[in-house]
Amino acid sequence: MSDEPSLLLGPQPGVAGQRPLVEVRNLRVDFPSATGVTHAVRGVTFTLAREKLGIVGESGSGKSVTGRALMRLLPPSAVVQAEALRFDRTDILTASERKMRALRGGRIGLILQDPKYSLNPVMTAGDQISEALRAHTRLGRREARDKALSLLEDVQIRDPRRVLDAYPHELSGGMGQRVMIAMMLAPEPDLLIADEPTSALDATVQAEILRLIEALVDRRGMALMLISHDLPLVSRFCDRVAVMYAGQVMEELPARDLRRATHGYTRGLLECLPSLTRKQVKLPTLRRDAEWLSPR
Fold first, then answer.
1. How far is the C-alpha of 29 from the C-alpha of 79, rounded, in Å?
2. DSSP state of 53
3. 87 near 191, Cβ under 8 Å?
4. Strands of 223-228's sheet in order across
5. Is the pLDDT of residue 279 over 90?
6. How far apart are alpha carbons 138 and 27 in whole angstroms?
7. Residues contacting 207, CB < 8 A, separation 6+
8. pLDDT of residue 224
9. Which domains, and CATH codes, for the chain?
10. Taking the C-alpha atoms of 121, 123, 124 and 130 in order, what is their torsion angle to the nearest 10 degrees?
11. C-alpha distances out from residue 166 to 34, 48, 295, Å
């Protein structure tokens, strides 16, 4: 594999023959301001079937912006352009707001980083899950509450009946994130975008949450886009990995081959990881190369 940026994420073994659920071609997102234009995403292209795709890179590399563009959740000031931006044949760029409301939370779920800022502090967990259900189904209030309890059981919350009537401030970080997962899974989406879903949790709870997401995604046959800084985690958890830098995809490869990556940026990220088995006097720092970026 050469060191030239690879902007195409095509189907990999195991998903061959599947029609892509997501198609993104030459996506560009700019944020104009009084001091100039920030080019947040610059020519990203990929397809995603019902598989697990990891998107990794430093903060500011465009990972979250790419995911939010797919849900059209960027601020009005953002300038979004693409040759194609589709979800299951729906053109995201031209779809009506009514159509997007049906997709968001209905067919596309988004798990954010910290449940403290994602959950409504004045609504109980049960009411928030029920609201997500009733927004995308025809369930009545009692049916939605019963389904919310079932979802809390699915995400393996202890004492789900108590949590159903608890407010976010009464929940631990791990419990809050499980409530968020239950809320996003309530309408049974086809795609789950998990944006750093474990960054606010301790290591033990992180592992539990990731195992839970993996089990639910596999059981329900969903596609998953996992946005993360954690390369080892993504290599174990996903089918494919896309490595982003400064708004562009530097390299994409099967997750099992991440340690054998050849691009200079990916190698630099891997070499910066601390080791628990090898003595290191000083951690290496990433050396950047201007040639990594293709012209805008």
1. 6
2. E
3. yes
4. 108-111, 191-195, 223-228, 52-56, 240-245, 248-254
5. no
6. 35
7. none
8. 95
9. 51-60+95-241+252-289 (3.40.50.300)
10. -130
11. 44, 37, 52
Q: How far is CA 244 from CA 7, 26, 39, 121, in A?
A: 10, 14, 13, 34
Give the predicted TM-score (pTM) of the model. Answer: 0.86
The H or E element that residue 36 is part of is strand 36-48
Distance CA 203, CA 188 (A): 28
277 Cβ contact list (under 8 Å, min separation 6): none
Neighbouring C-beta atoms of residue 95, cutoff 10 Å: 17
User: Residue 274: what pLDDT?
Assistant: 80
Q: How far from chain centre, in Å, is Cα 6?
A: 20
**Residue 44 clears pLDDT 80, i.e. is over it:** yes
Which helix (H) or strand (E) is 109 found in, with range?
A: strand 108-111
pLDDT tens digits along 185-196 = 888 899 999 998
Let me know: does 116 contact 168? Beta carbons within 8 Å: yes
Q: What percent of the chain shows pLDDT beyond 90?
A: 55
CB under 8 Å to 261, separation ≥6 — which residues?
1, 243, 251, 253, 267, 270
Beta-carbon count within 10 A of 153 CB: 12
**Residue 261 is encoded by which pair of tokens?**
């990556």
Q: What tokens does 55 get?
A: 């998107």
Alpha-carbon gap, residue 252 to 236, rounded angstroms:
15
HSE-up (13 A, CA, CB side) for residue 146: 5
Say yes or no to pLDDT of 28 above 70.
Answer: yes
Instruction: Give CA–CA dist 275/2, Å, rounded.
Output: 27
Average pLDDT across the chain, whole number: 87
